[in-house]
Design a protein that fits this description.
Number of helices: 12
Low-confidence stretches: none
Radius of gyration: 31 Å
Distance between the termini: 90 Å
Strand content: 5-15%
Largest sheet: 5 strands, antiparallel
């Protein structure tokens, strides 16, 4: 079927490499006749060439009270293969174009594993697991107390083309199937995009307003085991979707999480509190230079912070300044200036 467009509009259409990968794979379908129909290899290849966000994505692990673990993909990954306009699909982030695993799939993987344990348990253990299921995931009468967030790549998560070939098309025909599967039938290869093995994803859970961080950590532990034992996504029985924890990446992730939490905390701090933190963390000559800048400035809150730090966390520095000031006029001038500022601001400094 021919699709007619004005030349001006046709010239404005971008090529595949300039279209968002998520848009390309879920919305962009070419209308063709049977004779013009693209084979699945070309469709899958086009799906892997879309535009993705090249910068670092700030994941959900930076959220307050979040618990996270970095898991390395040990086989290829397929999620939401049948959700697009073509015969092959993959779940991509709608804005960034990178692979993602929806929170519903993450929650389902963890819940299924815990349900398996409950199904095999007996006695008190079975009762405890039932309580865990209801607390974490909820039931008919109550909502769960832990939120399972979408899993995003921690770094690069490239796509590649995979293939599944049916060798007996006539035998599996829905209309007139052959009685026996013989070797004289034409194989029918079907290509589809997958996430390449080796990609690292960050899996994040956090307590709801009714939950606790202890419960969220417990849920994260169940999720980690589920990903290592059962996997996630399609074709897990064929080796797809299996993960192992990447301890180095998890450590790095927790460091970034701590920094993000500190930034959020500092955003609500006063200039006095921020200056005190900065001064306490500064060592050696760097502290002396920072103090000198504050003394010469007219920033009252920073001067007050300096005097408070010299009287508490940096009291040894203050004692050293006073001792060395006896033989160093410039240092004596600094000591006298600090004492004058303390008196002016009503701060006690001995």
């Amino acid at each position: 079927m021919s699709v007619f467009l004005p030349n001006g509009i046709k010239q404005c259409l971008p090529n595949d490499q300039e279209i968002n990968a998520s848009l390309l794979i879920t919305k962009y379908a070419e209308v063709k006749t049977e004779a013009e129909k693209e084979d699945s290899a070309k469709i899958a290849a086009r799906s892997c060439t879309g535009k993705t966000f090249s910068g670092k994505i700030l994941g959900y692990s930076c959220l307050p009270r979040a618990s996270a673990v970095a898991m390395k993909l040990m086989g290829r990954l397929i999620v939401d293969q049948s959700g697009g306009v073509q015969e092959s699909n993959l779940c991509l982030h709608p804005h960034f174009g990178v692979p993602m695993i929806p929170g519903s799939a993450v929650k389902g993987a963890a819940r299924h594993w815990l349900w398996e344990q409950w199904n095999e348990a007996e006695g008190a253990e079975k009762e405890n697991l039932e309580n865990e299921l209801l607390n974490i995931f909820g039931g008919a009468e109550n909502a769960g107390k832990v939120s399972f967030l979408p899993a995003l790549p921690y770094g690069c998560a490239p796509l590649e083309i995979d293939v599944l070939t049916c060798h007996h098309m006539d035998y599996y025909s829905p209309t007139q199937p052959k009685e026996r599967a013989t070797d004289d039938e034409n194989p029918n290869p079907q290509f589809f995009p997958v996430v390449k093995a080796g990609a690292i994803f960050e899996f994040v859970v956090m307590p709801t307003v009714r939950g606790t961080e202890v419960l969220a950590e417990k849920a994260l532990g169940y999720l980690k085991i589920a990903l290592e034992i059962n996997g996630i996504g399609a074709k897990t029985s064929a080796g797809y979707g299996w993960f192992e924890e990447d301890r180095a990446a998890t450590k790095s992730l927790k460091t970034e999480q701590k920094r993000a939490a500190e930034k959020i905390q500092q955003a609500s701090m006063s200039p006095l509190e921020l200056t005190k933190i900065e001064l306490v963390e500064t060592e050696g000559t760097g502290f002396g230079e920072a103090a000198l800048r504050i003394i010469k400035s007219e920033a009252t809150e920073k001067q007050r912070a300096l005097i408070q730090v010299l009287g508490a966390e940096k009291c040894e520095e203050w004692k050293s300044w006073k001792k060395r000031a006896r033989t160093k006029p410039k240092l004596q001038e600094r000591v006298e200036k600090v004492l004058a500022l303390a008196a002016e601001l009503g701060e006690e400094l001995i």
